[in-house]
Amino acid sequence: MMNYINVCAAGSVLAGIGFSQCGPAQPDNTEVPEKPNILIFYADDVGYGDIGCYGAIGVKTPHIDYLAEHGIRFTDAHCAAATCSPSRYSLLTGNYPFRMRVGILPGDAPLLIQPGTPTLATALGSAGYQSAVIGKWHLGMGEGKVDWNKDIKPGPLEIGFDYSFIIPATNDRVPCVYVENHQVYGADPDDPMEITFTDDARDPNPYDNPTGLSHPGMVRQTGDVQHSGVIVNGVPRIGFMGGGEQSWWRDEDFPEIFTRKAIEFIDRTGDAPFFLFFAFNEIHVPRIPHEQFSGKSTMGPRGDAIVQMDYMVGRIMAALDERGLTENTLVIFTSDNGPVLDDGYADQAWEMLGDHKPAGPFRGGKYSIFEGGNRMPTITYWPGVVNEGQISDALWTQTDFFSSFARLADYNIPSGHAVDSEDMLDVLLGRSECGREFLLEEAGTFALRQGHWKYILPRPGAPAAITFDERKKIEMGVISVPQLYNLNDDPGEQNNLAKEFPGKVEALHAIMMEITGDGR
Ligand code: NG6
Ligand code: CA
């Protein structure tokens, strides 16, 4: 694998570009204790502007804001792509998603990360950590067609986690059951379940149960044609599922069950350090928050789901406090991709938005190559170690967790692995604001960030001008001509400077080609 950092340092393609400036390192002599617990709160589809301390208008998030007030709030931290599976793959492996050509995985996809691949969980495991993934998985399970009534593997346990309690894919697609370690949670062996994954609910339903299309009167939140398959808990999903109804989830139970499973896991780890990847279902569609959160924002179910997520953060943080673990835990809050309002269900997200800006000052959102797609609200918190109330503009990505945590846990990454991961530990802990020199972004095309510059690779055959996805009301940003933006003056990526700065375009393009091979 080419090491493009060295290539850059050697000056091959960088000649004439100049390195970006970064702020001075924060003087901080606090010692960093070895092997702290690591807790990642990983939100789903939560945008830069959806959190109180990032300017949210329609919802309050006091528990998450507390972490920022007593920790570091990042303004230029990123997920690897503008959808879920690619971002999660990159977070766990330290590779950019394009290396595996990862897209949104179907509900019956096999495990994406091959057992034997170093992951954050195997790395931390070999350093003595107990690790768990609790919440949304969406990285595939099994080797082909899964029999959901038998042991389901390989899965999270085969790639390094000691415990898993997951939604296998997303809450809008089958299978609508939890999987705990290798088994469907609450399954009845006398009532086996089957799923048929299909992207189109107009396909014939192989089971004798209602779907959104056959029984629209039974539905309490209407889905579009893809989201009109089997009705689970009054809500139609993508795909069909039959049998095993006692194990089907009730969406309103997610906050209770996932926080409980997390706290039980923490209690089981005893003296070992833990790594908890707490992957929220919130605020992915369908948004069916628990009754206690209903009406707690001014934005309908989408805002209420944010309140629920914030409540869960508060519950888990309180559990850490009660156990005296907070001072020995690095807590991170971030999200897997940008915001989307209508993602297939009529849940009033548009109608009740008001002045709230889900992507903050940025353009686009989920699915988009613009900053709204991958610039994430991101906070680190570790009392006594991380500075209080710092705001950091360092450029970095979740892909960097691997190298950063490897240093924290004193783990040597085998060569050829986590190739896109840079050690940003000093940035995460506020010792430095020198982030990355370059960052690759993905969503239908590539973009390359260097300092305040952003270059977006054109795609032949795409429209010449930015188009609008009418249903999602999001601009994807993929067009047939090069785009160059100066995010300092133009964070909303409105003013394409590619024609004015052809040299900059050429230089950034050359670096992008070095990283990606040929950009395809
Ligand atoms: C899309 C779904 C969308 C959502 C997304 C995955 C349709 C039309 N849309 O294919 O509703 O489930 O996949 O979201 O089926 S993600 O956050 O997990 O990437
Ligand atoms: Ca997502």
Description:
The protein is α/β, with parallel strands linked by helices and 520 residues long. The protein has three domains: 37-188 and 249-436, Alkaline Phosphatase, subunit A (3-Layer(aba) Sandwich); 194-241, no CATH class; 441-516, Arylsulfatase, C-terminal domain, CATH 3.30.1120.10. The chain contains ten helices and 22 strands. The protein has helices at residues 4-10, 62-69, 84-93, 120-126, 254-268, 301-322, 371-374, 401-409, 425-428, 502-516; strands at 37-43, 72-74, 77-78, 130-136, 163-167, 179-180, 183-184, 194-196, 231-232, 235-236, 240-242, 274-279, 329-335, 378-381, 390-392, 396-397, 439-442, 446-450, 453-456, 468-469, 474-475, 483-486. The strands form six sheets. The protein has a ten-stranded mixed β-sheet with strand order 7-6-5-4-12-1-13-14-2-15, sandwiched between helices. The chain has a four-stranded antiparallel β-sheet with strand order 17-18-19-22, covered by helices on one side. A two-stranded parallel sheet has the order 3-16. The radius of gyration is 22 Å and the shape is globular. The relative contact order is 0.19. Mean pLDDT is 94; it is low at 1-21. Calcium ion binds at residues 44-45, 84, 284, 336-337.
